[in-house]
Design goal:
Blueprint: H1 5-10, E1 15-17, E2 30-32, E3 38-45, E4 53-59, H2 65-77, H3 83-93, H4 97-109, H5 114-130, H6 134-151, H7 157-172, H8 176-183
Antiparallel strand pairs: 1-2, 3-4
């Protein structure tokens, strides 16, 4: 590994050369702080008949505009009323569906009102839809929708969103007439 001193001096990312403390000093190990972010610069195969690849990385810092844009986008997408809901959205975003499902089921057990339950069912439906488990997605969307129908006025925009989501699942299943029925509601 080569480290460009100009990048390190401008970065606030702590690191330590730990070869003196390593069991294998010839490895010249470098320890970076948690949450260090590197950008892939280049990937090259070491030789044409080799399965080894060399990956050239460069460290980023908080002034990196692409990293800042990505961070802002992720923050915006995982906004929620509290940390657990944001965690669930983030898990969905990165495809950790099993953990997201476990978290949402725990949140469901402690849900304090119908609106909260409707939201959790909606998030479970999104998860199942992304997994391609359409019948399960429909079940959760319908549970969410029934709660919303009871707790909201009939012209509330959340009901339209709910109908659209159910229609989207039917469309994904190839049941276009059923999808159209929900889109028209």
């Amino acid at each position: 590994m080569t480290i460009d001193p100009s990048k390190i001096s401008s970065s606030i990312t702590p690191f330590a050369m730990i070869e003196k403390h390593s069991a294998l000093p010839r490895e010249q190990e470098i320890l970076f702080t948690m949450h260090s972010v590197f950008r892939i610069v280049e990937i090259t195969q070491t030789s044409s008949d080799s399965r080894l690849w060399e990956v050239q990385l460069t460290i980023t810092d908080e002034s990196d505009p692409q990293l800042a844009g990505l961070t802002d986008c992720i923050k915006e997408e995982v906004q929620g009323s509290n940390g657990w809901y944001r965690m669930g959205k983030l898990m969905l975003k990165v495809g950790h569906f099993d953990q997201a499902e476990e978290l949402y089921n725990e949140l469901l057990k402690g849900a304090s009102d119908d609106r909260e339950r409707a939201f959790i069912y909606h998030m479970l439906a999104i998860m199942k839809n992304r997994q391609g488990k359409y019948p399960e997605a429909l079940e959760y969307y319908e549970k969410s929708h029934k709660i919303l129908e009871i707790s909201l006025p009939p012209t509330h925009p959340s009901l339209a969103t709910s109908y659209g989501c159910i229609g989207g699942v039917y469309s994904s299943m190839g049941e276009y007439s059923k999808a159209l029925e929900y889109y028209e509601k």
